[in-house]
TrEMBL record:
<dbReference type="GO" id="GO:0005737">
    <property type="term" value="C:cytoplasm"/>
</dbReference>
<dbReference type="InterPro" id="IPR000387">
    <property type="entry name" value="Tyr_Pase_dom"/>
</dbReference>
<feature type="domain" description="Tyrosine-protein phosphatase">
    <location>
        <begin position="61"/>
        <end position="207"/>
    </location>
</feature>
<dbReference type="GO" id="GO:0043409">
    <property type="term" value="P:negative regulation of MAPK cascade"/>
</dbReference>
<keyword id="KW-0904">Protein phosphatase</keyword>
<dbReference type="InterPro" id="IPR000340">
    <property type="entry name" value="Dual-sp_phosphatase_cat-dom"/>
</dbReference>
<dbReference type="InterPro" id="IPR029021">
    <property type="entry name" value="Prot-tyrosine_phosphatase-like"/>
</dbReference>
<dbReference type="GO" id="GO:0004725">
    <property type="term" value="F:protein tyrosine phosphatase activity"/>
</dbReference>
<feature type="active site" description="Phosphocysteine intermediate">
    <location>
        <position position="152"/>
    </location>
</feature>
<dbReference type="InterPro" id="IPR020422">
    <property type="entry name" value="TYR_PHOSPHATASE_DUAL_dom"/>
</dbReference>
<feature type="domain" description="Tyrosine specific protein phosphatases">
    <location>
        <begin position="129"/>
        <end position="186"/>
    </location>
</feature>
<comment type="function">
    <text>Dual specificity phosphatase able to dephosphorylate phosphotyrosine, phosphoserine and phosphothreonine residues, with a preference for phosphotyrosine as a substrate.</text>
</comment>
<keyword id="KW-0378">Hydrolase</keyword>
<dbReference type="InterPro" id="IPR016130">
    <property type="entry name" value="Tyr_Pase_AS"/>
</dbReference>
<dbReference type="Pfam" id="PF00782">
    <property type="entry name" value="DSPc"/>
</dbReference>
<dbReference type="GO" id="GO:0008138">
    <property type="term" value="F:protein tyrosine/serine/threonine phosphatase activity"/>
</dbReference>
<comment type="similarity">
    <text>Belongs to the protein-tyrosine phosphatase family. Non-receptor class dual specificity subfamily.</text>
</comment>
Amino acid sequence: MNYSDYSTDGYHNFMLKFSQITYLFYLSYQIFVSDEDKFDRQLYLKIRNFLQEGANESIKNDGDEIFPNIYVGNEFLARDPAEVKSNGITHVLNLAMEDVETGKKFYKEIGAKYFEIFAEDDPKFDIKKCFYEACEIIDKALKDGGKILVHCVAGYRRSPTVAIAYMMIKKKYNLWDAIVEARSKRKIFPNDGFIEQLCMLEKELHG
């Protein structure tokens, strides 16, 4: 091979590798931009820092009325029908059915209606897919003049996330106001993935 052939081959190899690297950078940029466009990262950090401030506090009650007629609670409240009744709760939404196995028969004696939606306490879990189904259950309970308990295992991540989503979707709250109101009534701390998904919902609803 003469010098000119070597130069041409080298140039082609260089350009091929350059184009591949450029394309990888392009894809990375697109992924980065897409993720950033899904939600307001400043709002996400503001919420996370706000909730972190009380991270060392203990949860005082098994359940709390964080919004009018909407209780968020843990498995201990959910497993105590007498306590559920004493709070005037008429509907129960279980988000931890794999861990808290109650069911319709469990609340039959107190006349509370039971619902369940599968949701994992995992930052990677797509909890947004639960929002609208949960909203319809909560909304129907309130329109019927009832009170609803939305519970998971600890009443700390899943259940407040869903209750906040309800206030945003049905009551037109913005996310920050819903977070502040909920936190004023109960210690909550949705995991990072849930906060991101609430921020995505905020962007969808309010731009």
